[in-house]
Structures
1.
Amino acid sequence: MLLEKIETLLKEVSELKASNAEELEQLRLKYLSKKGEISLLMNDFRSVPADQKKVVGMKINELKQTATQKINDLREQFAEAEATSDNIDLTRSAYPISLGTRHPLTIVTNEIIDIFQRMGFTLTTGPEIDDDLHVFTKLNFAADHPARDMQDTFFIEQSKLNDVTKNILLRSHTSGDQSHYMEKHEAPIRIICPGRVYRNEAISARAHCFFHQVEGLYVDKNVSFTDLKQVLLTFAREMFGEDTKIRLRPSYFPFTEPSAEMDISCHICGGKGCGFCKHTGWVEILGCGMVDPNVLEACGIDSKVYTGYAFGMGVERITNLKYRVSDLRMFSENDTRFLKEFEAAN
């Protein structure tokens, strides 16, 4: 009985036909899968008398080989038909296309985001094309501040609505994302805002007309400068190593008061002094400070109840410190020789 069943299956598989790849896959599953017809024969094979096992076993192997060969032949026919069809892309390269890697700026941005998210910050983004109100006015920039000049900011157009003139521009910093967020959300707020920004600067090895920033904001009751310092120290050690030291120097920013610039101990020379840190042992990486009460009020947050801190850093700056890239233009030239150097960092 088992031999008759095998002969019947041999006849079936020798006459197999399929009109498409999906039908072929169904045939493969029917005959060659773990629960297919040929596998089920092995259950009956156990009850075959010992003197017949050799003959029956050879027949099962013949059946399996025939089915496999038939499936492979049909698969090759479909591949040949597809290759000769009109759907073939004649513009496709004859050479294999190698997989790319993440851009070094993306690698560093993701690392920065990961560090702050582990400290409880929420990721948010804002528009690259914004208005003067959110980029400057709500952030306490004076009407005659140099950043509002055409020489510094890319202004796109002026629009007028209800006798109110609105200047549309390419954002010059991601701080505008914070004003948008504070308008729409109540405190407490703990966010981090990465993004591309634009400034009207001459392109050189040390400057570009567009670059990337990551800014952070924390607004709550009883937030102090000590909280800011501890968060930045944690970030510096996570990013550059446990032995990293920081120092804060007084500075000025329109949207924070008091304000500071933060340096880290040079991780190249260990703070002893080298050409990279200009023999000072310190390298500046970001600006920070306590959010000015005027900014909180302009965004609808009661400055008598809430305080906050903010910080901002350039991604290119951090990337240079980690990988020592000497020319900023290399980040935007898409030279594959340069990008391949970061394969191990992915």
Note: The chain has two domains: 2-83, 104-345.
2.
Amino acid sequence: MYNTPKWMKVLQYVALTVVAVFMFFPIYWIFCNSLKTLTGISAFPPELFPSNPHWENYKEVLSKPSTLLYLRNTLILVVFNTLGTLLSSSIVAYPLARMRFRGRNTVFTIIILTMMVPTATLVVPEYLMFRVFGMLDTFWPLILPSFFAQPYNVFLFRQFFISIPESIDEAAMIDGCSRWQTFWKVIVPLGKPIYITVGIMSASFWWNELFMPLVFINSDNLKPLTVGALTSFQLAGGGNQTAWNLQMAFSMIMILPPAILYVCCSRYITEGIKTSGMKD
């Protein structure tokens, strides 16, 4: 086996460290600015860390009534979209992975081909459709599509389900389980890593989603955190002046939940993605 020279390992670690610092610096800069006053942010030369940190910026952000309202709306979108994604995508993927029927590969190919359609091209038809149904300015246009199976998630579920030995299904059905019972009582428990992986991806996406709420939501009491943050920190003088220190504090608060979620579940994410990449 080829042994990597020590100088090569050192070079690799140095390169990885430089990349890590380069990628982490914007988050560090947001954190530093969140602890400054508004005049401190525009000071030159800029301080890499404020000499007198203002932690009360976070208190001011969290004490705003609108922050809790936007948080509630975001959690509604995260929870229902994640549940819809896990339910619909896994149910669609199960027969494509575990059942033999004519046209199975054709159906899967068509599902995958829909991934090539840009999301932006669907916004106008969706807007017109939901307008006909009278669902604009509600959560329905943001939640309902997740209950109709997303192609990429179907692909991940299918690839993971394929990796499970078919003898498990056969043993369950010999014991008297139907296909539906086999799915819920056998495949779902064994698919824990991929459910966690897709769930985290969906939750992170809807925690940070800005575009779709901007299109479908107009009422202030229905805005999620991403949209509410754009208008919640205007200075008292009006106009387009923004309290950037509070905006940065708000951004740091939004960064933390997805980061903590990833750190706590990174083992399952790695396992789910790795197994989903196995060949048919």
Note: Residues 173 and 179 are 7 Å apart (CA to CA).
3.
Amino acid sequence: MEQYRVRSDHHPAQRRQQRPPAPPAQRRPPGAVGAAAVRPRPRPGGAGGPGRLPRPRLTGLGGGLFACAAMVLAGGIDWLVFDVSLIAYGVLFLPVAAVTALWVRPADLITAPVSVPIAFAVGVWPVAGGSGGFGGQVMGVVTALSMHAGWLYAGTLVAALIALGRRAVWSSRRKLRTAARRVPVQG
């Protein structure tokens, strides 16, 4: 569920065509910032080493769908294994909230704290314990949401803190890249 945006003013081929080539004395090696070259750090365990979570880049809608599917699965696991324990459901909600906030792409970070509580409400349906038809099920969901709002708030807070932290890191890296482009090359 990844979407790409292509902006014509940032396309590398067009940037090369717009600027005249630099004289050989002023050319920088690839990855150089100013006069010093920046070497990429090797990742521990190789490119996709063992013990690392995958780094998917979900859109806002994809993150919401992932969270909803994961919480329905968590509700089913809770119903089968823990015999409808809303505390176990709340504990399963916290890592889903964290992973959703980690896997959403930087442009859609604001959607993580919004979609996570919706996913909690969607997934609580199988473990709500309502009876007596549709109205009883709805009352069971409302009761479960009100009685276990602490888990809902905690997961939303986890997603919001991770999203804010990722946004701060993303903004600072973006500012550094912009500043590195403005550094004059000394020959």
Note: The longest strand covers residues 32-33.
